[in-house]
Specification:
Elements (H helix, E strand, L loop, with lengths): L43 H4 L10 E5 L2 H4 L12 H5 L18 H14 L4 E5 L2 H4 L9 H16 L3 E7 L5 H7 L5 H18 L5 E6 L1 H4 L1 H4 L12 H25 L5 E6 L4 E3 L4 H14 L1 H9 L4 H7 L8 H7 L6 E4 L5 E5 L6 E4 L19 H13 L4 E5 L17 H19 L4 E7 L18 E3 L6 E3 L1 H12 L4
Helix pairs in contact: 4-6, 8-11, 11-13, 11-15, 16-17
């Protein structure tokens, strides 16, 4: 029987479906690193011209502050809700916490070199709100900002483009105590002020920003299901208001950032889109899946893209609908420069139907294959349909895959290697579907692998690993896995292998 800890921060992704594993067969990677040129001097691009990704496609890696930085009590950093939550016995596997994590706070120069070693041209990192504003608002902590200035400078010095996420779940505890966190629009206002401050300070060097990451996780999973910090179980109306306040924070931040930036910047969002996939690719099923994707994201991504709630969403909530104004909806729908989507799986498989919705949602088959995380139903085709529907529904002309990867129980072999063939298999199949998307003109401009290194995986603590680099949590040494070599080959040559 699976324990409660078999649920993850992406628990909502268990929304169902069934398909066969691996829709695209891709050439296998041997245990010997692939070379950029063959023995007769031909490059990979010459041998595989149809597998090339678009010119200037960005290959990057991603992390989040609480998961990698550590140093939670250093240089004036304030307490976050995850500091508090992780200290409650039984909330985190093995009672782990992020006090040390990967100690990136002290080892960032080493970690930048890791990125460079695998030809990662971009890095998506999050800024810890309580490290910069220990009390959530008020006076900024200069030492906290210094860390990010130093990290940014180090990245740029090594030719790595910076992509900053302003919120990846580590809300200042003071705002939780004072306002109930995202239950209050005061937190939305505080976030906009924080976002404006950060933009003013770093926009001379950082040109790409994600406002908030994975709304469902820090709203529903945190305030309704009680599975993530702060671990509350509120009523339906309160949760709907939490969602609204979160997307309002996004909209307010977009406007505030545009007013304080030092130079032209691009702003978007990083959302774990709920993806509906046509179980059989017929025109009718494709149209049904597109409709389903819009409605399944109605309270979060859809309202951010359209500036309105769908009738179906509001009708379903009835008296539990959130309190909002037309002015707030206008803010929430502030135009974006790009859309970032975290893609792990097909949340639902869809068939066209004659019912009022026009679609039927299918559950995953009982024996649908998963990765090491029980929530992670393997469905590579989600990497095609998620960006396609973002383009088709909202006319988006710039999309980033802001997270994609898989958890595993990686172990060191006797000779010190990590042969994570499961992750390599995962990447082959998902990137084949990403290539399908770009080859059809779907405007995906970059891919960020989750994660650069093994780190604190929220309620799973250190019990599951997502990294391209293996972290020894006793010594904090980083060791490249086989998947790092695979990523390097693709990133260096900009081609599917």
């Amino acid at each position: 029987m699976r324990s409660e800890k078999s649920r993850s921060r992406r628990n909502f992704l268990k929304l169902g479906g069934s398909t066969a594993l691996g829709l695209a067969a891709v050439s296998s990677l041997s245990c010997q690193p692939e070379k950029s040129q063959t023995e007769n001097g031909q490059s990979l691009q010459q041998l595989n011209p149809i597998r090339k990704f678009p010119d200037n496609f960005i290959w990057g890696t991603a992390t989040a502050a609480y998961q990698v930085e550590g140093a939670v009590n250093e240089d004036g950093r304030g307490v976050s809700i995850w500091d508090t939550y992780s200290k409650i016995p039984g909330k985190i596997l093995n009672n782990d916490n992020g006090d040390i994590a990967c100690d990136m706070y002290h080892r960032y120069k080493e970690d930048v070199l890791l990125m460079k070693s695998i030809h990662a041209g971009a890095y998506r990192f999050s800024i810890s709100w309580p490290r910069v504003f220990p009390n959530g608002t008020g006076t900024a902590n200069p030492k906290g900002l210094d860390f990010y200035n130093n990290l940014i400078d180090e990245l740029l010095a090594n030719g790595i483009t910076t992509y900053a996420t302003l919120y990846h779940w580590d809300l200042p505890q003071v705002l939780q105590d004072k306002y109930g966190g995202w239950q209050s629009k005061e937190t939305s206002k505080a976030f906009a002020d924080y976002a404006a401050y950060i933009t003013e300070k770093i926009s001379d060097r950082v040109k790409h920003y994600f406002t908030l990451n994975e709304f469902y996780s820090f709203t529903d999973l945190s305030y309704e299901r009680g599975e993530l910090a702060p671990g509350l179980k509120l009523d339906q109306k309160s949760v709907a208001q939490v969602r609204h306040n979160a997307v309002l924070a996004h909209g307010m931040a977009v406007q505030a950032m545009r007013q304080t930036t030092q130079s032209p910047i691009e702003i978007g969002v990083a959302e774990n889109i709920v993806t509906a996939v046509p179980v059989i690719e017929t025109p009718e099923n494709i149209e049904a899946a597109k409709k389903a994707t819009r409605e399944l994201n109605a309270g979060l991504l859809t309202v951010m893209m359209e500036g309105k709630y769908t009738e179906h969403y509001l009708k379903g909530l009835g008296v539990n609908a959130p309190d909002f104004t037309d002015a707030e909806l206008k803010l929430i729908g502030s135009p974006l420069d790009f859309v970032g989507i975290n893609v792990y799986l097909a949340n639902k498989y869809v068939l066209a139907a004659t019912n009022a919705d026009g679609y039927e949602l299918l559950s995953h088959a009982k024996n649908h294959p998963t990765m090491a995380s029980p929530w992670h139903m393997v469905s590579p085709e989600s990497m095609y349909w998620a960006p396609r529907f973002v383009k088709d529904l909202w006319g988006t002309n710039k999309i980033y895959i802001t997270e994609n990867g898989c958890g595993a129980t990686d172990t060191l072999s006797d000779d010190g290697k990590i042969l994570d063939t499961d992750r390599v298999m995962f990447l082959k199949n998902y990137l084949a579907q990403l290539h399908r998307a770009t080859s059809e003109g779907i405007p995906v401009k970059g891919y960020f692998h989750w994660s650069l290194m093994d780190n604190f995986e929220w309620i799973f603590g250190y019990g599951i690993r997502f990294g391209l680099f293996y972290t020894d949590y006793k010594t904090l040494a980083r060791t490249p896995k086989l998947s790092a070599e695979y990523f390097k080959t693709i990133a260096k040559n900009n081609i599917l292998v």
